[in-house]
Design a protein that fits this description.
Radius of gyration: 20 Å
Low-confidence stretches: none
Largest sheet: 5 strands, mixed
Mean pLDDT: 86
CATH topology of the largest domain: Jelly Rolls
CATH class of the largest domain: Mainly Beta
Number of domains: 2
Order of helices and strands: EEHHEEEEEEEHEHHHHHHHHH
CATH superfamily of the largest domain: Regulatory protein AraC
CATH architecture of the largest domain: Sandwich
Distance between the termini: 13 Å
Length: 293
Amino acid sequence: MTSISVLHINLFQSGKSRSDFYFNTLKDHLVTSHKHIEKPHRHDFYVTVLFTKGTGIHEIDFQRYEVSEGSIFFLSPGQVHSWELSDETDGYIFFHSQEYFDLYYVNQKLRNFPFFGSSSSHKKLQLGAGELKETVSLFKKMEEEFHSSHIMKDNFILSLITQLYIHSTRQFSREDNILVSPTSFSYFKHFQDFESLLNEHFATRKSIAYYASLLNITPKHLNRITQTVVRKTASEIITERVMLEAKRMLIYLDESLVDIAFKLGYEEYSYFVRVFRKNTGITPTQFIKKYKS
């Protein structure tokens, strides 16, 4: 096993002065960046990919998604992904750093969008013909602006990115039948704060009470929030976050199973195996064999 590579945005910006935003057609990206993306990898930036032609499989954090015309994917920093695509694949891809977005939207954080949450299953939208046409129009405007030298270029690009993110958020909300209300907005904000804290402490803190206390709410209310936002208990979300990291480490780190369990906060390896098996249906050893076969 080898450690998974983390790709930085400047790898894709050879010869360009700007290093915090990248745009390309998907066909050209697959050709020019093949040496960087041919194996499973993760990024330190946010990625959006729209497919207008082609088929295949896109795997994100061990979840496999079918690719077809109208598929649009969103990836957050740290997520592991890889794909197997047909030769005629085309579309558009852009990515940007956190700093690029924050430079113009101080009060609008990227984690406010549901597809950039670490516990979110919202990584893919499948657009219908009308939605695809509107989305392609946004990408084409972005492409034109990216290659221009217009005044306030970045502001315009970011306005297009934000339109795309808002449209996608609304589509996800319609799919989930989420009704927007002051209560649901408050719950969503608390859930985002919970995710942020979980990403910091999941290896050492696994109790609902710990995160509830940091959020100044009761464990019961935290469960109510998570059930409302993602239809899961807080305990399920905590365990899923730990198990996701376990899967990444098992596949991509050259370390013993006992050491991995210890790094994830399990002093007894046998208990780690029981939790892993309950969550995935197989043991860590079986998972490695299955994924590597």
